[in-house]
Design brief:
Layout: H1 3-26, H2 34-66, H3 70-86
């Protein structure tokens, strides 16, 4: 397995773990207190945006893994992994 492929697989696993945590947080029960509910709704908006961002990143990683041709995509994969890791 090439280093770029290993990096993509590792990144994919990290993103999946983070996405699962976000989705778990979104499924939590809301508080009976109206003030806390308002805060939770604001937090949910942030979590929903994060969920979308993580899903988009996973789609990109899956695309790169699906179309991997070591001699062509290795440089692209390394670049994408580097950019995504900087954004974390």
């Amino acid at each position: 397995m090439t280093e770029a492929r290993q990096q993509l697989l590792s990144l994919q696993l990290q993103l999946q773990t983070r996405l699962e945590k976000v989705r778990t947080d979104l499924k939590r029960l809301t508080s009976a207190d109206s003030q806390e509910q308002a805060q939770q709704r604001e937090n949910d908006e942030v979590l929903q945006e994060l969920e979308k961002h993580l899903s988009d990143e996973l789609d990109l990683v899956a695309f790169l893994r699906l179309h991997e041709k070591p001699q062509v995509n290795t440089g692209i994969a390394v670049l994408v992994v580097t950019i995504l890791q900087r954004n974390d």
